[in-house]
Design brief:
Helix content is 46%, strand content 22%. By secondary structure, the chain is of the alpha+beta class. The chain is elongated, with a radius of gyration of 23 Å. Strand 4 and strand 5 form a beta hairpin.
């Protein structure tokens, strides 16, 4: 089982291109707090990215940075220039999708900004595991990054059928590549379960848990299957994943149950059994502790939210 593919598919990862900038020195762009992760790619020139708390990051051509929590930040060529909020840009004035900003002096810079979204957020999601700021430097095989981003730019330059889906899929591919490169850079004990997937013992154990969350897994059982004794397996799992095997197993079961409640009409008792609980009462108690709602209320809330979203879309279509 490809755990990462399964997780990304279930959280409904998406996103799109927000801006394609051509920037003349001096310039200073302010990006407010956003409810999603943002990415910035410098294709030409250089810039400095500064977070609200004061930390700064130098970006050169070919660098891609991800602001995984959507924190407010500024990007500039000259910090003395008054920041201009990206919310104040008139996108309708863009020329073939390109927004021009700043002065007329050299050096000029080009930058692509976009967002990553998760439609089904969950505890310990992929975005939660990323550092608040993730900088990716160009690599020998880094041509894929510019190729994807250039395609996103050309796709967004003019409206075409299926444009939103195309941009979302391109963003998903971009995010997967960002994750792959970040995972390769991780040391032992970094990155939670994402980093632990590469471990020759804990990786197979994670796959077993994901493939069969209903099984009554024990430390002895899993340790034996991956070639470690009980104590060694327990210590290694906790060190690399960041939580005990039993905590991870419960979280995995609760995530699977939430997915089934949202996407199927299965009875709650059957869902309880499918994630490893003999009684509905035991399952419901753990589910409430984990998600803050009973299974029945969780399903009803999700479906009422979905109905409201659909009504909002229909209303928007009527009023446009």
């Amino acid at each position: 089982m490809d755990i990462l593919a399964e997780v990304l598919d279930r959280v409904r990862l998406g996103g799109t291109l927000l801006f394609h900038f051509e920037l003349g020195h001096p310039w200073n762009l302010a990006l407010p707090q956003r409810p999603y992760a943002m990415f910035h790619y410098i294709s030409r020139g250089s810039a400095t990215l500064a977070l609200e708390q004061g930390s700064e990051l130098r970006m050169d051509a070919g660098d891609c940075v991800v602001i995984s929590r959507g924190e407010p930040h500024v990007i500039y060529s000259d910090r003395r220039t008054t920041p201009f909020s990206v919310l104040d840009f008139d996108r309708s004035a863009a020329d073939r999708g390109v927004v021009r900003h700043g002065g007329n002096a050299q050096p000029h810079a080009t930058m692509i900004c976009g967002k990553f979204t998760v439609a089904r957020p969950s505890r310990g999601s992929v975005l939660d595991l990323l550092p608040p700021v993730l900088l990716l430097k160009p690599t020998e095989d880094g041509a894929w990054l510019e190729a994807i981003l250039r395609r996103m730019v050309s796709e967004s330059a003019c409206e075409r059928p299926g444009q939103g889906v195309a941009l979302s899929r391109l963003t998903e591919v971009l995010f997967v590549e960002v994750l792959r490169n970040w995972i390769k850079s991780l040391g032992p004990g970094e990155g939670g379960w994402l980093g632990a997937m590469a471990d020759p013992h804990i990786g197979p154990a994670l796959r077993l848990i994901h493939e069969r969350p209903d099984r009554p897994w024990t430390l002895d059982d899993l340790g034996q299957r991956v070639g470690l004794g009980r104590s060694a397996f327990s210590a290694r799992f906790t060190k690399l994943v960041g939580q005990s095997m039993y905590s991870y197993l419960i979280a995995r079961r609760m995530s699977e149950a939430a997915f089934l409640l949202e996407t199927s009409d299965e009875a709650i008792a059957r869902i309880a059994t499918s994630v490893g609980y003999e009684t509905t009462a035991a399952f419901s108690k753990l589910f409430h502790r984990h998600h803050g709602l009973s299974p029945g209320r969780y399903r009803a809330t999700l479906r009422s939210d979905g109905d409201r979203s659909q009504e909002d879309v229909l209303e928007a279509e009527v009023t446009d």
